[in-house]
Amino acid sequence: MTAHLTRSLLYLDGVTVSFDGFKALRELSLTVAPGEMRAIIGPNGAGKTTMMDVITGKTRPDKGHVLFEGDIDLTRLDEAEIAGLGIGRKFQKPTVFESQTVEDNLILALQAPRRVASNLTWSVGEAAARRIDDILETTRLAAMRERRAGSLSHGQKQWLEIGMLLAQEPKLLLVDEPVAGMTDAETAETARLLKEIAQHHSVVVVEHDMSFVAELGVQVTVLHEGSVLAEGSLDKVSADERVIEVYLGR
Amino acid sequence: MRASSFGFVGPLGAGFLALLAIAAILVPLANLALPVGSALHVSTAAMSLAGKYLCYALLAVALDLVWGYCGILSLGHGAFFALGGYAMGMYLMRQIGSRGVYGNPSLPDFMVFLNWTKLPWYWTGFDLFPVAALMVLVAPGLLAFVFGWFAFRSRVTGVYLSIITQAMTYALQLAFFRNDMGFGGNNGMTDFKDVLGFPVQADATRAALFTITCVALGGGYLLCRALVTSKLGKVLIAIRDAESRVRFLGYRVENYKVFVFTISACLAGLAGALYVPQIGIINPSEFAPGNSIEMVIWVAVGGRGTLVGAALGAILVNYAKTLFTSGAMAEYWLFALGGLFVVVTLFLPKGVLGAAMDWLPTRRAAPRERTQPSAARDDDGRGNLDPCELT
Question: Residue A161: pLDDT band by 50, 70, 90 thresholds?
C-alpha cells in the first residue's frame, strides 16, 4: 500500500455498482482525510445513497477498491464488522427503535461489546451514564429521555439518530440527508450540531439542501450519474458550468 | 434499570409468580389431603388437566420470547415440545422393564413386536434419568441451534422463516411416523409405569408432577423475564423492530437470534417432558403443523411480548378447548379457534393482557413495562399480527 493511501481515512477508487444493468455508481473515486468534513451533493439518482451502502457493507461493488484507514478492505466485510471498525451511519429516513425510550436507543448505540454473552450482564455504569447525559445535552433531547422514540417529532428523531451515531464513537460518520423534512430552525440547529461533531470526527454528509451545505462551509463533492462531477468549495463548484447544467441550473 | 419494589419481574410478574406458588401448594393439598366427597377436593384428573395447561403455558412463554421480543414467528415450536416429550417418553419406556406385554427386560414392546433384538444406539443411556433429563434440553436445543444457524445466517426472515419452521415440524412428524425410526411409529410411546421409581398413575406422583410443572413454569418465566429486561433484551426488541438498523450498530443479529431461539427450544422441550408423564402418551401427532399454529394463537390471545400474557393465553384457550370439545359443539372447535384469532387480531391487537393493562390508569403501566410490539405502531393505529411485518 502506498504512503498516500494510508493518510486517507476513506478511499474509494473506481467503484462500480450496477443493478440489473443500471449503473448506480460508475468508476467512483473519492477520498476523505482524517478529521475532514465533506458534503456530497447531487441530483436524485446520482448514487449518493448507493455510495453509503457500499461503504457500510450493505451493497457489494462489482469492481473497485474501498479502503478504510489505508489498508482495511471494506468490500470483504459485512455490516456488523464495518460498524465495529468505527463507521457509523445515519439513514435518510430516520431509523430509531420506536418502541423503546430515547435513553434505551442511546444505550443500544453506546460503544460497548456487541457479543451476546457480554450483553447478558451489561449494565449502565458511571461512565456510560455520563456519556448518555452528554449526548442528550448535545442533541437537546434531555427532556425526552423517558419518552418512546416513536413519539418524537421528525426533527427530534433525526437528532436522536445523530446522538446514536455519537454514542457509537465512530471514526467516520456517514450522514444521509440529515435535514430532509426539517423546519428552518431545526435545519440551523442541525448544522450547529454537525459542526460541533466535526470538531472531533470525520463526517460525510449527503444533502440536497444547498443553504444547509453553505452553512456547513466545507469541501463539496458533486456526484452525477454515479461518478464525481466536480470537487472543491461550494463557491467553486457552483461556478462550474457542468454542475450548473446538471444540477444547479435546473 | 429502574428498581421497582418488585425487582426485575415487575408487579405483574410478581402477581403471576404468587398465583403459581399458591397453585403449586394448594392444588396438590386439595387433591391429597381432602376427602373425595369434600367440595374443595380436586380430582386427580382435574389436577393433571391443569398440569397440562401449565405445560402449554411454559411452551407459550418460550414462544413469546422469540416471537414477542425478537420477531421470530416460529410455526414449529411443537417440534421442540415433542422432542422433549419423546426424550422423557424414552426414559419412561425403559422404566417399564420386564413389565411390558412381552416381558422383555431391555426392549420396549414395540421393538419386540418389530422383531428387533437389541436397542438402537441412540437409546443408550435413556434408562438413566440424568441422561434423559439432559436430552430433554439437548435434543430440541441442538435442533434449534443447527436450524437457526443456517436460517438466521442466511437472513431468512418473516413469512419465509415461518414456512420453513412449519416444514421442519411436518418433516419430523413424517419421520416419527415410521416404525424403523425406533420411536414407536404411529402409536408412539405409552403405558408408562414409573418415574424415578414412583408409580406414574399414583395420586401422590401426579401431585408432585403438578408442583414441579408450576416450579418449571415459574423458573422459565423468570429466565425469560431476566433475558428480556437485560441489555440483551433491548437488542432483541431492536431486532424485532428494525433488524437492519441493529446490524449497522455493529451487532451480529444472527448470533442473537440463534441464542434466543435455542433457549426457547430448550424451554419448549422441558414443557414437553413434563407433559408426557401427566398425559401418559407421546406420539407423532404432537409434531402436527396445526399444533404449532395453535400455540401462536395462544400467545396472540394472551398478549404478545408480555410473557405473562402468553401463559395466560395458553391456559384460557386450552380451557376453552376442553369445554368446547367435551360437548356437542366439539366439531366446531377449529372454527371457534379461527374465529377467536380473527377477533383478537381485529379488536384486541395487544391480546387480553394488553387490553387489560390499557384499562388501568396509565401510571400503573410504566413505559418500561410496555414493550409490546404493537405499541410501536400506535401512531398509525395498525394491528400487530400480520406475519409480513414481523421481520
Answer: very high
**What is the Cα–Cα distance from B23 to B1, expressed in whole angstroms?**
31
The ipTM, to two decimals, is 0.88
Q: What are phi and psi of A101, to 5 degrees?
A: -75, 165
Cα gap A93→A16, rounded to integer Å? 25
Distance from CA of A7 to the nearest CA of B (A): 25
A205 near A39, Cβ under 8 Å?
Answer: yes
Interface touch A79/B244, C-beta < 8 Å:
yes
B69 → chain A, closest CA residue: A99
Name the residue type at position A63. K
Q: What is the DSSP string of B95-123?
A: HHGGGSTT--SSS-HHHHHTT--S--GGG
Helices B203-229 and B308-325, axial angle in degrees (round to 10): 140
Which carries the bigger pLDDT value, residue A93 or residue B95? B95
Q: Chain A window 69-88: which residues touch B at a Cβ cutoff of 8 Å?
A: 78-80, 83-84, 88
Question: How many CB pairs below 8 A link A and B?
Answer: 92
Q: How many domains does chain B have?
A: 1
**CA triple B33-B320-B27, angle to 5 deg:** 15
Name the percent of chain A lying above pLDDT 90: 62
Neighbours of B239 (CB within 10 A): 26
B198 lies in some domain:
yes
Q: Does B150 fall in a domain?
A: yes
- B118 phi, psi to nearest 5 deg: -145, 165
Range of the domain at B381: 8-389
The three-state secondary structure class of A32 is: strand
User: Cα separations (Å) of A9 from A92, B30, B229?
Assistant: 23, 74, 38
Q: Using the beta-carbon criterion (under 8 Å), do A146 and B253 form an inter-chain contact?
A: no
Nearest CA in chain B to A119: B232
* Chain A residue numbers touching B375 (CB-CB < 8 A): 99, 148, 150
- In a domain, residue B383? The reply is yes
Task: Please check whether residue B2 lies inside any domain of the structure.
Answer: no
CB contact under 8 A, A99 and B375: yes
The residue of chain B nearest to residue A148, with distances taken between CA atoms, is B367
Q: What is the pTM of this model?
A: 0.89
Q: Does A113 contact chain B (CB < 8 Å)?
A: no
Q: Is A65 on the interface with B (CB under 8 A)?
A: no
Are the beta carbons of B234 and A107 separated by less than 8 Å?
Answer: yes
Q: With CB atoms and an 8 Å threshold, state whether B238 touches A101.
A: no
Which whole-number Å values give the CA distances from B52 to A214, A230, B13, B92, in the listed order? Answer: 69, 72, 21, 18
Would the CB atoms of A120 and B227 count as touching at under 8 Å? yes
Give residue-wise pLDDT tens across range A6-35.
Answer: 578 999 999 999 998 888 999 999 999 999
DSSP B268-324: HHHHHHHHHHHH-EE-GGGG-HHHHHHHHHHHHHH-TT-SHHHHHHHHHHHHHHHHH
Residue A12 β-bridge partners: A30, A66
